[in-house]
Amino acid sequence: MHRVLMPTERRKPQLADEAQRRLLGPLRVLEQHLQTRSHLAGDRFTVADICVASVMAWLQGATDLMAQCPRVEGWLRRCVLRPAFLEVRLMAKSA
């Protein structure tokens, strides 16, 4: 939020840097997990992917962070490009 969503004058880059530093550990765990499977619970898309991807969608703008975890970035991209995900996002914007 402190890099993209907040008005520029209210952003605190040090908070964004700290959040990014703290997220790198869990993302590396997920990166390792995705070495042997295409989704969180194996090789099929499940509700686990929906839940985690819906939260992690906020990270799409964190290109430096996501570049350190290419498997996570690819998995997230596949999740958010699913037709149902795109439809829900569109519905949310029009509400």
Taken in chain order, the helices and strands follow as HHHHH
Q: List segments where confidence is low: pLDDT < 50 over at least 5 consecutive residues.
A: none
Mean pLDDT figure: 91
> What's the main sheet like?
none
What is the number of strand segments? 0
CATH architecture classification: Up-down Bundle
Distance between the termini: 22 Å
CATH first level: Mainly Alpha
> Oligomeric form of this entry?
single chain
Instruction: Give me the Rg, rounded.
Output: 14 Å
As a percent range, the share of helical residues equals 55-70%
User: Which shape, going by the Cα principal axes?
Assistant: flat
List keywords for this structure.
95 residues; mainly alpha; Glutathione S-transferase Yfyf (Class Pi), Chain A, domain 2; 5 helices; flat
Task: Characterise the protein shown here.
The chain is an all-alpha fold. It has one domain (14-94): Glutathione S-transferase Yfyf (Class Pi), Chain A, domain 2. The chain is built from five helices and no strands. It is flat.
Task: Put the structure in a nutshell.
The protein is mainly α. It has helices at residues 13-33, 47-56, 63-67, 70-80, 83-94.
